[in-house]
Amino acid sequence: MEQLDKLIVTINYIRTFNEDNGFIVFNGTDFETGKTTNVKGSSFSLNEGDILECEGKWLNDPKWGMQFDAKTIQLYTPTTPQTVLSYLESGYIRGIRKKTAANIFAMFGEKSIEILDQDPDQLKNVKGIGEKTLEKIIEDWNEKRVLHKQNESLKELGFSIEEALKISKTLGGEAIKTLCEMPYALVTEQEFDFSFDKIDKIALTKLRFQPTNPARILTYIIYLLKKAEGRGNTYLDKEVLFKEGLKKLKIDKEDFELSYLAGLKFKKIIENEKENIIIVQKKSTYNAEMFIATKIKQILEGSGKVFFSPELKIDDATEKGFVLSEGQKGAIIKSLENKVCIINGGPGVGKTTALNTLIKMIKKQHMTFTLCAPTGKAAQRMSESTNEEANTIHKTLEYNPPMKAFQKNEINPIDTDFVIIDETSMVDVFLFRDLLKAIPNSSTLILIGDVNQIPSIAAGKVLKDLIESEKIPTAFITELQRQAKDSDIINNAYLVNEGKFIKVNNKKDGDFFFIKTSSDFNTLEKIKEMVKNNIPKAFKVNPKYSLQTLTPIHEKALGRKSLNKELQNILNEESDLIKRGEVEFRRNDNIMQTKNNYDKEVFNGDSGEILSIGRNQIDVTYNGKIVNYERTDFDQLELSYAITMHKSQGSEYPLIIIPISSDYSGILDRSLLYTAITRGKERVIIIGNERRLKEAIKNDFSRRRKTYLREILIEKLK
Fold first, then answer.
1. Distances from the Cα of 492 to the Cα of 158, 488, 516, angstroms
2. Of 447, 504, 498, whose CA–CA distance to 472 is shortest?
3. Which ranges of 438-571 does DSSP label H, i.e. alpha helix?
4. Is 572 helix (H, G, I), strand (E, B) or coil?
5. Dihedral through CA 350, CA 351, CA 353, CA 355, nearest 10?
6. Which of 442, 423, 323 is nearest to 380 (CA)?
7. Per-residue confidence at 14, pLDDT binned at 50, 70, 90?
8. Of 462, 357, 360, whose CA–CA distance to 713 is shortest?
9. How far apart are CA 391 and CA 198, in angstroms?
10. How many CB atoms sit inside 10 A of residue 253's CB?
């Protein structure tokens, strides 16, 4: 085992600290030599003046010079008489000066630190310490040591630094007590979201919980339902729930059933019947689907119904040069005649043209409208195609991050006559519920989308359920626009959607190409060759700005991470860079924001380019808007030369490459492929194994989500 160096150091100032993962860099003074040094490592929250005991290695960093790379960082606890006295005299503890330190040491000697930890009230017997001074000492000691010790205890239980920080941040100083009483809350409560296996191991081995503990059993039932929601479902069959629960928990069926019945009694879970099968849902999920159906009924029956008037001539509102199809006209009329309406159509049928005409007709009636979409990119496209303001649903609902709630709701609804949602297939049950809460019953709701695209990442298939209930007025636009009929991209997208293999001729002036390869290695090499040589020469474009590579996975050779590394090396050789883990961010890199950041006003899916790189920061430009990121924010960014197909939904790109890998088996299906193909505006290039491509087109598992919304709609809207 490698011998580690030891360093006792007092923090002078903290250069950077990541509250999420504990990464810290600070400048400190060696407690023994008095020399200053830089230290980096991972720790719990620290303060200037803290005295630490570190174990690690000295290293000579090319940029920062000599620094201590700490493998462990702990608050220093002195053990010898001299170090105890020096510690007390250091001024580290507020309220203890040199003279007071000497008096404490004179009374308690080497046990002084133990007294501070376990029985600080004894300090009132020390000369010079009154009630106010004692309060000050205890408060400061608790602030500096108790929370840190709590985090150390959490670490001993088996939590990582990152996890311990998260628990302490949420539960405060009562974390250990709460954990000992209700460890399984860390599985079920949304702000934690720990895996059942991790908490179960701690509860059974460290906290001595019994395998038949009702909290353990009910937690696993809810955990199974959460896992099902993670796969897009809103329920599980009761039979499957029992089978998986008994297999995992290794308990008698009677014990499992008792906890299941308790869950029903206390309304943690809900039981219903669907097609002669008993299904089980989390109460919150059932409530969301029930609210959607109830609210749709209220809007359909609400006041403010808009009747289409023959005097309103559709053709007069149509953009010059466009002739509306019968499907488009029917969609506009249906939207104006009904309080809730769905406009459904695939690529090339002219949904945008219909929307623009609809907006003009709404304006002619001097009525107001609100345009929104699920993602920033989709909202931007909606705005560009209509020349009207369009926002994300979150922005429309005025999300308040500190409160973790929308400010637009039943009490404070959106003030508008029409609410028009684009890319509705991306909307999950929970977001749709929140949106409906903010729509007055007097408003008209219009939902636009393509039901054949992949459903939402979160649980549900809202658009599909609304259509299949056959209770919501729905306009199907099916006629292809003239220019779309000649597009191989559009035609092949429809073939894939029907489960048929693509038709390609790979003509140089074509818009759709399929290049067969015999292995994933060859696929990657072909992609690199295309990006480096073929695309710039054949199509006269710069792939950095025109190309988007789409993959269904993050890992493996043809996953997002690896592809980004390969494409970055081809498209951006800049040497000005900064690292986060294994990822290099270089000046001029294409990047994507991966979380909603309301302070910076950048949102999940926003694409930008790195403008400059500083010592511990990155400046990114988003369509001319410059946003600064400190190192602690780097986890919100990822390279975007390659992105997942899910992330691409709602966007369009001039040129796309879609690799086909054996690693995509069980993940890539016709919905995902159809969605990816329809992202291409000018050219689509598929590269990979033909057999795997046929397998993907044959499968349609992402369309087989288990939801209960359709049945509730049918019942509510009889």
1. 52, 6, 17
2. 447
3. 462-468, 482-485, 488-497, 520-529, 535-539, 543-546, 560-571
4. coil
5. 170
6. 423
7. confident
8. 462
9. 40
10. 11
Question: What is the tens place of the pLDDT at every residue in 568-615?
Answer: 999 998 888 888 878 889 999 999 998 878 788 888 888 999 999 987
What is the end-to-end Cα distance of the chain in Å, rounded?
73
Per-residue CA distances from 283 to 101, 122, 199, 410, 460 (Å) = 58, 52, 23, 21, 15
> Within 10 A of 490 (CB to CB), how many other CB atoms are there?
23
Token code pair at residue 61: 């960093």
* Predicted local confidence at residue 50, as pLDDT: 81
Give the model's confidence band at 13: pLDDT under 50 very low, under 70 low, under 90 confident, else very high. confident
Q: Torsion-angle region of residue 439: left (phi > 0), alpha (psi -120 to 50) or beta? A: beta
- Res 715: pLDDT: 94
Distance CA 255, CA 242 (A): 11
Bridge-based pairing of strands 277-282 and 236-237 is antiparallel
pLDDT band at 364 (very low <50, low <70, confident <90, very high): confident
Query: What are the structure tokens assigned to 414, written together?
Result: 């959106």
DSSP labels for 414-470? ---SEEEESSGGG--HHHHHHHHHTS-TTSEEEEEE-TTS---SSS--HHHHHHHTT
Q: Confidence band (pLDDT; 50, 70, 90) for 177?
A: confident
Give CA–CA dist 242/14, Å, rounded: 52
CA dihedral 39, 44, 49, 53 (to 10 degrees): -60
Q: Which residue has the tokens 């599985």?
A: 187
Band of residue 114 on the pLDDT scale cut at 50, 70, 90? confident
Q: Choose among 100, 96, 86, 105: nearest CA to 10.
A: 86
Backbone φ and ψ for 421, nearest 5 degrees, come out as: -110, 130
Alpha carbon distances (Å) from 1 to 4, 128, 301, 358, 637? 9, 49, 74, 73, 37
Over its C-alpha atoms, the chain yields an Rg (Å, rounded) of 31
Q: Provide the greatest CA pair distance for the chain.
A: 99
Q: For 256-290, write each residue's pLDDT tens digit.
A: 999 999 999 999 999 999 999 999 999 999 999 99
Structure tokens at 617: 């920061």
Give the DSSP H/E element, type plus range, for residue 710: helix 709-716
The whole-angstrom distance between residue 188's C-alpha and the CA centroid of its chain comes to 18
662 and 692 Cβ atoms separated by less than 8 Å: yes
- HSE of 54, CA atoms in CB hemisphere, 13 A: 30
Contact 418, 368 (CB under 8 A): yes
Say if residues 7 and 59 touch (Cβ distance below 8 Å). Answer: no
Question: Which amino acid, residue 261?
Answer: L
Dihedral over Cα of 6, 10, 14, 15: its sign: negative
Give yes or no for a contact between 429 and 455, defined as CB atoms under 8 angstroms apart: no
Q: Give the separation between CA 669 and CA 311, rounded to whole angstroms.
A: 47
Nearest-angstrom CA–CA distance, 639 and 102: 57
- Taking alpha carbons only, the member of 666, 656, 662, 713 closest to residue 688 is 662
Q: Which residues of 644-653 are buried (b: 16+ CB within 10 A; e: fewer)?
A: bbbbbbbbeb
Phi, psi angles (nearest 5°) of residue 15? -75, -45
Helix axes 238-249, 253-265, angle to 10 degrees: 130
pTM for the structure as a whole? 0.81
pLDDT value, residue 311: 52
